[in-house]
């Protein structure tokens, strides 16, 4: 199977939200209920389409953390900050859906040897799972580029340095973090692909 190590589209047969809701509506509800104002929030798994949750279980995968965030269009920058989310693990994945963000691309970079962390932290509080590390590199070398288009879900490698171009309109992103039901462990990129091979979209 000619799959790269950075991103793979998945033709998952269920929409992520109940009643095909738009993430903006869900976001507004959560913000009103929790009295918070963040662009990156955690939402409960119960807000997802239950058929989707069950579909993952049939592949022996549990969705145990769900994130939702938005990014405004930024036509003056080639890409948002280069960052990674491995926290020492060289192989860590998420499954993303994107709404809006016309002509948005996600780009991965070769090992950034000269990179210096400019910021580190956790985006959500649940067991400090969603680690990020902003990187400042002198001459980052792009090695893979992937266009982000709804309604396709995309398995993405988050441990390797990457950034997103978002030039034309606001982009909403839903991130699912999964783990093996039997062991409780997160799976790497290829292991996740193997589990979901029946919905992998092969690029021409």
How much is the radius of gyration in Å?
Answer: 16 Å
Q: What is the number of helices?
A: 3
Shape: globular
Question: Segments where pLDDT lies below 50 for 5+ residues?
Answer: 31-37, 117-129
* Separation of the first and last Cα atoms: 12 Å
Quick description:
The protein has 204 residues and is mainly β. It has one domain. It has helices at 23-34, 50-58, 189-195; strands at residues 7-10, 40-43, 61-71, 82-84, 93-100, 105-109, 116-122, 131-136, 142-147, 153-157, 162-165, 171-180.
Strands, helices and their partners?
Layout: E1 7-10, H1 23-34, E2 40-43, H2 50-58, E3 61-71, E4 82-84, E5 93-100, E6 105-109, E7 116-122, E8 131-136, E9 142-147, E10 153-157, E11 162-165, E12 171-180, H3 189-195
Antiparallel strand pairs: 1-10, 2-3, 3-12, 4-8, 5-10, 5-12, 6-9, 6-11, 7-8
What does this structure look like?
By secondary structure, this protein is mainly β. The chain has one domain. It is built from three helices and twelve strands. The chain has helices spanning 23-34, 50-58, 189-195; strands at 7-10, 40-43, 61-71, 82-84, 93-100, 105-109, 116-122, 131-136, 142-147, 153-157, 162-165, 171-180. It has a six-stranded antiparallel beta sheet with strand order 1-10-5-12-3-2, with helices on one face. Strands 4-8-7 form a three-stranded antiparallel beta sheet, with no helix packed on it. A hairpin with an 8-residue loop joins strand 7 and strand 8. The two termini are 12 Å apart.
